[in-house]
Write a structure and sequence with these properties.
Distance between the termini: 20 Å
CATH class of the largest domain: Mainly Alpha
Largest sheet: none
CATH topology of the largest domain: Hypothetical protein af1432
Shape: elongated
CATH superfamily of the largest domain: Hypothetical protein af1432
Order of helices and strands: HHHHHHHHHHHHHHH
Length: 272
């Protein structure tokens, strides 16, 4: 498609009128109309502004593509994952995990993933299934996978409310970071990752969490947040992966997690 058709398609996908888009760009609606009719090309400064407003790459605006790909919000059915986790927990004798499944499901009820109709619980379920698929059958790890976002994201729930033992609560505490501002973010995150490194199980949960977030962030985060996630992952995760690699029972998982994290980073860098 031409740049004009790309602009029109992206504008309509975001339910913006030409007037609304023009206001955000600081141009007249006649200018937007002429771009969409391919009468005039937007100047490079306006192309960059368009990419920011539409939250897409510049290349997606200017490239002539024959069509668009159909995207999937989710790969697996979350209810099937819940059944798999519960069945595995019963078969493997994982009491914390059995309690955590229903608690996490209720805590995240009614909440969806960012920019998605997928229930939020899909995320912790996915991480728990990821662990089980790597033959990690540690009750504390699987339960923490399910509960890792509950205290951070669900108002009114504290660590003492979690229906699990103290080991799981400590893992959840370590992977839960305080709210940050632009001014204190670097300081908070350095301290957060430094403390976490003392607990290989917490590190394992965090790396699986990052794997799933990297694989889904294109549909849920702004370009600015994606850049921040890439920088943060490059800065802190090599050290976390080293902790996992040096923990004998997680050595195989370290190889798989390193491959997935670094592969996803390379893909985003090329496409950004």
């Amino acid at each position: 498609m031409s740049i004009g058709k790309n602009i029109k398609m992206l504008r309509e996908e975001r339910s913006l009128t030409q007037e609304q888009l023009a206001e955000q760009l600081g141009v007249t609606f006649q200018a937007v109309s002429s771009w969409e009719r391919d009468e005039y090309m937007p100047e490079i400064g306006n192309v960059k502004k368009l990419a920011e407003v539409m939250d897409v790459s510049v290349s997606s605006l200017i490239e002539d593509k024959p069509g668009t790909f159909k995207m999937k919000d989710a790969i697996y059915n979350w209810e099937h994952m819940k059944t798999y986790i519960k069945t595995s927990a019963r078969n493997l004798g994982l009491p914390n995990t059995l309690k955590a499944v229903d608690f996490a499901t209720e805590a995240h009820k009614g909440v969806n993933r960012k920019r998605s109709s997928v229930p939020y619980i899909y995320h912790p379920y996915n991480i728990a299934c990821h662990a089980l698929a790597m033959d990690i059958n540690d009750d504390a790890v699987i339960a923490a996978c399910l509960l890792h976002d509950v205290v951070e994201d669900c108002p009114g729930i504290g660590y003492d409310d979690l229906p699990v033992d103290d080991e799981v609560k400590e893992i959840v505490r370590l992977v839960t970071h305080a709210k940050t501002t632009d001014e204190n973010r670097d300081e908070v995150m350095r301290a957060y990752y430094e403390e976490m490194k003392q607990n290989p199980k917490a590190v394992l949960v965090k790396c699986m969490d990052r794997c799933h977030n990297l694989s889904t962030m294109a549909g849920g985060l702004s370009r600015e947040r994606i850049f921040r996630q890439i920088r943060e992952t490059e800065e802190y995760y090599p050290e976390l992966l080293r902790v996992i690699k040096e923990t004998m029972e997680y050595n195989d998982a370290a190889w798989l997690l390193k491959y997935q994290i670094e592969s996803m980073l390379d893909i985003y860098k090329r496409l950004m």
